[in-house]
Write a structure and sequence with these properties.
about 800 residues; mainly beta; Maltoporin, Chain A; 22-stranded antiparallel β-barrel; 5-stranded mixed β-sheet
């Protein structure tokens, strides 16, 4: 790949195009300001399209119109969520620019914004895209994959948000905001049925119980059979859903200008068969030790090397994994069905989420005080048959009990030309974890891993929005944070291989040598109790020549805390030193430079353009080397361009498009054989985008609509190591939707078909070819259909 200092002509053209577009819009602003109608967002489910000027976001911790905020934000109202058929957090990727995700399972998701992510699947890790549910930070990706129900809106903030959102928002932040209690009675009930015996329900009831007390109760349940057929009798099909959730919100106004909000949430996945949704694909390690797909007529080199004593030669089978298993009918690389497996045991996710929160808003002198107290408990038991074959080759288990408590105090106020926000934040995370990445069939290796991690954090922050003459605004913000992380890690296996890392002892035992490791270890017990401190910055200049045009340029310094890579397996004998020395990793820093415009144009059109440049220091890159997972700090850079367009050229017609183009590199990436290369950021295609067309027909007998949307993603890799098996080809997914609402709008219904063309593409994979001879890949759902209907009660 070309060195970053010699940027491609395409990337330079993107920068030039953005600047030209900004200049053109700025010149045109006064001219169209008198005639432009309000711009509009994506269509409503079955009503008049809502204008984008009506969409209110809290991207700066206060309510503002979306088009008045100098941040790259994509917002989804409740009507848009229904219109796009968004059911869980992973569905957001089909409508938000530069957003992708690693979907280990539907209940364990790591978001990726503009290539910024960390794909470590350890339950103890905090991802760099901060997820907030009703102002409560979700520290673990275990709580990021959850059903969306009874929501007021979702906000996707792209770029570092460290000043006000603070914790680990290097890549951005995603806010999920629930519907609040109402002062009038209202209720609704939604039911959905569809492919794979889908049966989903959602409902809410809201209203006053006293003059100054309102309550809203909402619930959902989802059930479906697995869409991945298991050919083994008695083993459940994989990829099904079986979960439910409850949420209660009480609002109390003790005085006219004080509001107290109580939120309680509970979600349950009881033994859901949504784990280990892997296909079976034969592979072998190439000269760099990276996975390559195995031709059907080739003997797996792992057998030739004698890794499996059951095959001493000379007559080796062809086209198999390390165990000698072969089944071309379920190998997608050989024309097999990606939605069929033949395993020997059930895989499951068992998860419980409990969240309780108190939010108080009250006057305090010239300020408005906001206090948010939150307590979360997460319980998880997970098991997967990772080999996707009838041979007991690879089993992976995880267990977690995480308690998170946090408190945030914010003071906000308007003082002349200044809009001030300042505050303090404190958080504690107490996690207890178990794991086992075992290989019983060939290696007879059964690790047992147990560890605890405790995080204590505090921060102070402030931001000032300063209205300047001539329609300019300056924004300055800063945040100082301090973390302490303490870990107690113990790993052993049935061979006697042992690693200990805690504040009292650092120890490794080489089972093959029958002796402790006595030299080369540089980490000490003090390294098991690390303290990190840093700061985030924001500086922005906005210019608004008319009410229909905003241009801005900004600098953001985003930071993410350091931590520990706590592997789910023991090291191979002889690699204990690199295993232990690789446990701690450093904080990462992202300097982000951004220029953008938000314009409301004639024909009820909105156009948002963004260009950015990222300079990464100590990028936290996740990599797997053999049986060991690790995070390494590397330098990285990126530049990109994003465009969002929504228009209503005629009554009833909505057209929407977004486009992203990226150019990036990660330097000094060590491959398994220690070759140093330059690669791209993971899951960050050079080009991606989406289109939506919808027509609403209004008549005396009601409203009918028809909608088509399509999402395109270019070629990318699933990890920074970018093994040949981790390359994902470009793909396009098309969905259809149509519906009807009667004149009284008391009920509505819609039918849909998702993935109409049955596009075959992956949402997750990882390279384990060097020790299994196969690759586990998770393929997206095949074509599905459904019917959904909603009935509204009350006014």
């Amino acid at each position: 790949m070309m060195a970053f200092s010699k940027s491609s002509a395409r990337a330079s053209a993107l920068r030039s195009g953005l600047l030209a577009g900004a200049a053109a819009a700025a010149l045109a602003g006064p001219a169209f300001a008198q005639t432009a109608a309000p711009a509009t967002a994506a269509p409503a489910a079955a009503a008049q399209p809502e204008t984008i000027d009506a969409i209110v976001v809290t991207a700066q911790r206060r309510e503002q119109k979306l088009q008045d905020v100098g941040i790259a934000v994509t917002a989804f109202s409740s009507k848009q969520i229904a219109s796009l058929g968004i059911k869980d957090s992973t569905d957001l990727t089909k409508a938000a620019p530069s957003l992708s995700m690693n979907e280990y399972t539907p209940s364990a998701v790591v978001f990726n914004i503009r290539g910024v992510s960390q794909n470590d699947f350890g339950d103890e890790q905090e991802p760099p895209v901060a997820v907030y549910q009703d102002d409560a930070y979700a520290s673990s990706f275990v709580s990021s994959g959850f059903p969306l129900f009874d929501l007021q809106r979702v906000e996707v903030l792209r770029g570092p948000q460290g000043t006000l959102f603070g914790r680990n928002a290097t890549g951005g932040a995603i806010q999920f905001i629930s519907n609040k209690p109402t002062k009038d009675f209202e209720a609704y009930l939604t039911g959905t049925t569809g492919s794979f015996n889908e049966r989903d329900f959602e409902g809410a009831v809201s209203g006053p119980v006293r003059d100054n007390v309102q309550v809203r109760l909402s619930a959902m349940s989802a059930y479906s059979d697995g869409y991945i057929q298991d050919l083994t009798p008695g083993v459940r099909d994989r990829g099904g859903t079986n979960h439910w959730a409850l949420r209660g919100i009480v609002e109390w106004q003790p005085t006219a200008d004080t509001n107290v909000q109580f939120i309680s949430k509970y979600a349950r996945n009881p033994h859901e068969n949504s784990a280990g949704m892997y296909s079976w694909e034969a592979a072998y390690p190439n000269a760099h030790g990276q996975g390559t797909y195995l031709p059907a007529n080739m003997v797996n080199p792992l057998l030739l090397l004698g890794y499996n004593p059951a095959f001493p030669g000379p007559n080796y089978p062809t086209g198999t994994d390390l165990t000698g298993y072969r089944n071309d009918a379920i190998d997608p690389q050989r024309g097999g069905d990606p939605w069929k497996v033949a395993t020997n045991q059930d895989s499951y996710t068992d998860r419980t989420l409990v969240d309780n929160q108190i939010k108080i808003e009250a006057p305090l002198g010239p300020f408005r005080l906001t206090s948010i107290s939150d307590l979360q408990n997460i319980y998880k038991s997970y098991m997967e048959d990772a080999s996707a074959s009838p041979i007991d080759q690879v089993n992976f288990r995880q267990g977690a009990h995480v308690t998170q408590y946090s408190e945030e105090f914010r003071l906000s106020g308007h003082f002349g030309e200044h809009e001030l926000v300042m505050g303090a934040y404190g958080m504690g995370i107490d996690g207890h974890y178990t794991a086992s990445y075992s290989f019983p069939a060939v290696f007879n290796l059964i690790p047992v891993v147990r560890f605890k991690q405790k995080t204590t954090s505090y921060a102070f922050f402030a931001q000032d929005e300063w209205e300047l003459p001539d329609n300019f605004k300056a924004i300055f913000g800063a945040r100082y944070w301090h973390d302490e992380r303490k870990v107690n890690y113990f790993a052993t296996d049935n061979t006697g291989e042992t690693v200990i890392f805690n504040t009292g002892r650092v120890y490794a035992f080489n089972a093959a040598a029958g002796a402790p490791v006595t030299s080369g270890i540089t980490v000490t017990p003090a390294d098991a109790d690390k303290q990190f401190s840093d700061y985030s910055l924001r500086a922005e200049l906005d210019y608004k020549p008319s009410r229909n045009l905003l241009t801005y340029v900004s600098f953001n310094r985003g930071t993410k805390s350091g931590g520990f890579t706590l592997s789910t397996a023991t090291p191979t004998a002889g690699f204990e030193v690199s295993f232990l020395n690789g446990i701690p990793y450093r904080p990462e820093v992202l300097d982000a430079y951004e220029i953008g415009l938000k314009a409301s144009l004639p024909l009820s059109t909105s156009l948002n353009l963004t260009g950015f440049y990222y300079d990464y220091h100590h990028y936290q890159a996740f990599a797997e080397y053999g049986l060991v997972e690790t995070v390494i700090n590397l330098p990285a850079q990126e530049e990109g361009f994003e465009a969002e367009l929504t228009t209503h050229p005629i009554r009833g017609l909505t057209l929407q498009a977004n486009f992203s183009a990226m150019d990036n590199e990660v330097k000094d990436v060590p491959l398994p054989d220690q070759t140093i290369v330059t690669h791209h950021l993971p899951q960050d295609p050079k080009t991606s985008g989406s289109l939506l067309a919808r027509y609403d027909y209004y008549a005396d007998w009601g409203t009918a609509f028809a909608q088509v949307d399509a999402t395109y993603k270019g070629r990318f890799c699933f990890s920074v190591l970018c093994a040949p098996v981790e390359h994902e080809a470009p793909h396009t997914v098309v969905n259809l939707r149509a519906g009807y609402t009667p004149p009284n709008k008391r009920w509505d219904m819609a039918v849909y078909v998702n993935n109409v063309g049955q596009e075959i593409y992956r949402v997750y994979t990882f390279d384990v070819a060097a020790y299994t001879g196969q690759i586990p890949s998770v393929y997206a759902r095949p074509r599905t259909w459904g019917l959904t209907a909603t009935y509204h009660f009350g006014k």
